[in-house]
C-alpha cells in the first residue's frame, strides 16, 4: 500500500541524519520534497491525531529513507509532530540520508528512533549506531539536538548506579583539504 499523507508533516519529519557531530548536515532540499509512506497497514485516528503505519514501513522524503516495522506519528494541539520508528530487520529501525553538499550519506539504526519535529531533537534507543562518512558512534542511547548541533552518546546506568554499558566512537582525522 502506498499512502500520500493528507497532512503536511513538519519539515524534515524524522530527519535524523543530523545525528553525528559537527558536520553531518542533512540535504536541505529534502525538506521541500513530499513525504511518501508505504506500509502493509495504516490506522488513522483523527480524534487523537495519530497515524500508525505497520508492516515493512518505508518513509521517503528526497534522499531520506527510513525503514521500520512500525512508525507512529502523533500531532499535538499546536500542530507539533513527533514520530517513533521501531523494529525492522533484526529488530532495528534504520535511516539513510545524503549529507548537504557531499557525496556521502548518514546511516543509523536502533531498536527505537524518536524524533520531535518542533524541538528538532532525535533520540535513538537500544543498540544505537550512527555512521557519517567514515565516522561512527555506538551505544545504548544516542541523542541529537539539531538546533545546537550537539549530540550525546550514553551507556546508561544500572539500578545500583553502576555503568550499564560502554559507548564507542571511530572519528577519522580531518585533513585541511577535507575540512574545506
The main β sheet shows up as:
6 strands, antiparallel, barrel
Sum up the overall morphology in one term.
globular
Strand content: over 45%
* Secondary structure category: mainly beta
H/E element order: EEEEEEEEEEEEEH
Q: What is the rounded distance between the termini?
A: 44 Å
User: pLDDT below 50 for ≥5 consecutive residues: which ranges?
Assistant: 1-25
Q: Write down the Rg.
A: 16 Å
Strand order of the largest sheet: 5-6-9-10-8-7
Number of strands: 13
Helix content: under 10%
Overall pLDDT metric: 75
Helical run tally:
1
Structure description:
This protein has 180 residues and is an all-beta fold. It contains 1 helix and 13 strands. A 6-stranded antiparallel β-barrel has the order 5-6-9-10-8-7. Strand 7 and strand 8 (105-110) form a beta hairpin. The longest helix is centred in the C-terminal third of the chain and has 4 residues, at 176-179.
